Each structure stands twice: as C-alpha cells, then as structure tokens.
Amino acid sequence: MAAKLEIDYELVKQLSKEEVIENSLDFAAKHGVDHQAVVGVLGSLATKDYISRGDAPVKKKIVKLTPEGKTYLEKGTPEGKVMEVLKAGPATKDELVAKNAGDATLVTNGLKVCMKEKIISIKEGVYAPTDKAGAWTDSVGTGLKMIAEGSAPIEELVAIAAKLKSRKVCVASDVSFYKVVRGGNFPAADDIEKRSWRIKQPADFDAAKLAEMQKSNKLLDMKPVNVNAEGRKNVGGNLHPLMKLRQQYREIFLELGFQEMDTSRFVDSSFWNFDTLFVPQKHPARDSQDTFFVTHPATTKDHPEDYVQLTKKIHETGDFGSTGYRYQWSRDETERNVLRTHTTAVSSYTLYQIGQEYQKTGKLQTGAFFSIDRVFRNETMDKTHLCEFHQMEGFVIDYGLSLSNMMALLSSFFERVGVKNLKFKPAFNPYTEPSMEVHTVTESGKIIEIGNSGVFRPEMLRPMGLPEDVTVIAWGLGLERVAMRHYKLPSVHDLFGHHVSLPFIQNAAAPRH
Length: 513
Fold this sequence. Notes:
Layout: H1 7-18, E1 20-21, H2 24-31, H3 35-47, E2 51-52, E3 58-65, H4 67-75, H5 78-86, E4 91-92, H6 93-98, H7 104-116, E5 120-123, E6 126-129, H8 139-149, H9 154-163, E7 170-177, E8 180-182, H10 189-194, H11 207-216, H12 241-255, E9 259-260, E10 267-269, H13 270-273, H14 305-316, H15 331-334, E11 337-339, H16 344-361, E12 367-376, E13 388-399, H17 403-415, E14 422-429, E15 432-441, E16 447-456, H18 458-461, E17 470-478, H19 479-487, H20 502-507
C-alpha cells in the first residue's frame, strides 16, 4: 500500500509503465487511499502539465452496501435467519432468539418482515410457516450479494437499491472519476525516482533572483503566471438586501415628485405619535403590550400649547362637525415618550408645519411627501412580525382630492415595483375615513395584504391650521413584507437574525421592473 505522501509517485510510476490510468477510483481503491486525495494530487500535477486528466470528470452510478448491509451479507438477513429456524419446525419468539445467539433485535426485525410478507403466522405465541413460505426466497439477501459482486448491469443494481431503500442496507449514488494520461512535461525515467516534479518553482521575482539570473546568464525556471486566474474575491461589507430595496423605493417616490420627510426622531411623545392623529388615549394600540415606552426621559413637555389645547378639545368634545370621543383627555398621557410605532407621526409633524405656514401666509403648500424608516412595536415575533421594522409612508395634500385619486396613485406606484392586480377592501383607522386595505393577487391566486390607505380625517387636519376644503390622501406599507415577497422568503427571520444566509446578503439584487 502506498503512503499518502507518495500518491504522486505511484501515479507517475504507473503512468510510466501503462501510459494511461483508465479510472482514478480504481487507482485509489488499489492503493487504499481516499479518492479525494488522489483528485487533489491530479490537480497539482495537471497544473504543471506532468499529466492530463481532461476538462471534466467522468460520471457514473454506483451502488454500495451500508455497514448494516455488509452484516446482512455476511451473517444473513433477519427474515432469512428466522425462516431458517422455522422451516425446521414451529417456534416461539424466545426459541427463535435462543437459536440466533440471543439477538432479540434481529429476531424482532425478521418477524416483522415475515409477517408483512405473510410467510409466517402466529397462534398462541407460536410462529409457523404459511403455505406461501414454500415459494419464498430471500430476495434481500440475493440482492445484497448481486450488489457486492457487481454481477448485474448497473441499471438493475440501482433498481434493487431503490427497492431496498427503506431497509437502509445499500445506497446508490453518482461518482466522478478521471481518466489520466501523460502530459507534455511528463518526467523522464531518471527523474521519476528523484521526484523532480516536487521541486517548487519560485513564484516571486525579486532583486536577489535578478542578480542570480545575471550571474548565471540563464533564465530562471519560474512558476508560470496564469493571466486568466481570477483575483481574490472581495469579502468586504455588503449593502443589506433590505437597504437595496429601500433605496429603490426611495428613487420611485422621488421620480413621482414626492419630497422626503425628516425621520430622525426614533423617540417621540405620545402627543405626536397618537393624539395628533386622533387616536383616543384608551385605544389598545397605546397599551404597553403594543408600544415600547421610554423611561429616561419618560416625558416630553415641549409641545405647542395652542395646538395641544385644540387637540384636547377635538378629543373631548369634538369640533368641525365631529362630536369627539367624549372622555377626559389626560396631559400626563400625551407627554409620555415612546419609540415611534409608525412613521405617520412624521407625517403629522410635517402637516402641522404646513398648516402653521398657511396660517401665517394664507398660501397652502400643496404637494406629495414620503418617508421610509424604522418603527417599533411590542409585538410577539413570528415568521411575519418583528418588534422593529421599516415602514414606507406617503401622503398627498391638495384641494379636491378623492378616493379615486388615491386608488390611481397607488396603482401607479405599485406598478413601478412590479405589483399589479391591486384590490381594495374597506377598513377602519382612527385617523382616516374612508380607509382601505390594499391587496394584491399572487401568481398562485392567493390574495395578500400589502398596505393600508385612507383620507386623513378633519379631526386630525383642522387643529393643525389647514383649511376646511383641503384633502390629504395617505398610505403606508411594511418594507420587510415587500422584501419577503420579492426574495421569496418564507420567514422574516431569513432577512434578519441568526437564520440569515451570508451568501444571500452578498448576492441578493434589488428588483428591476
């Protein structure tokens, strides 16, 4: 048997005698070495053209016995051992175990097979052959022998392996091997014993090698340079697929003429996050089960007082045609700091600034605005929900807008990202009326929700200082759900967390539509 370090020598020596090695698998088996080690040596010798192994390996099917299969082949199958005893006469299980060297597992497995094939029966604890036992043959044992001896065409052996798959006694697989011939630089007979191919050619050329070459007046035997070799792959940082998607959506908003809002405030007061949106202070969304409350600092008192009083009034008694919620509004509640639960708080602040400018100048700044940033909710995490995620939101403010304007705008927006077949379903939001869920039909025909939309209520807009006849249409959707749909991810945890595949992060491309 050749030592592992001498695989190259054995290869070269055999080629010097036979000129060709038809099957590298046979070579590995002959010398008792791992085939992958042989493949590695072949690659090393081929790069210097000592040998040639072709452009691609030869592939073929093989069938091998598992350790359990080898045991069955050597000692007999469980059903064969059981039938061998029962053909001499009926026996109990204990008697069968005793006559099989106390191997209870073997007897149990054998009895299961025999009962399944109905070649034995049991009565009062005694097993005996049935009428079918006379024609029975141990097909498993015969098949194992054929596989071990290779005494049948490979197609037949593969079929046998398929039938015996559940028994786990053999396995069929594809293997690759090489046909090896001499290369252009195959060593001469004298050089084989010297292992001349192991002499390493210098790869780096420096001043010392230049001086050596000048002194000897001969070219040095340098390692050839492969100018076609790929460089080392850049393993630097990669933009997260979600950020690629975020940038694409941002560009779409800008192409449609939207202005980007400032979203830098992750921590906001309940006043801006809830009260200005006409969300009552007893609404379930404001409970600790749904919202992260900040403890340091716990409150914010810096709010425009006149706007606070108008917001309080609209909640308690209503105005502008509304009756309000008819409850005692609490300043302490409105001053509590939270991690913002939606980017609609950003929209509210932007609309307030537009309203205040209108009060000063009498001119309304009409236009379209958007934001894409992180929001936080105290939710139970599952395959579609996280406590921290990204929300996209847009609104348009102008005179004479209607629900049909919003539906047309949404259709135009989603068509740019490849989402068609939009469907709208009536919904409820505290700060929009009418409100609509936005759905789409997938390729499989399933209807899924992708966003929410509506017309901001007068109870929200009028206290901001906006005129009576202005309309604001708005919508929002989660960026993560869009990413899951685009990248075909079954769970949001394949996008964030320890389940994320790094190759996915490195190679995922933003959608192109």
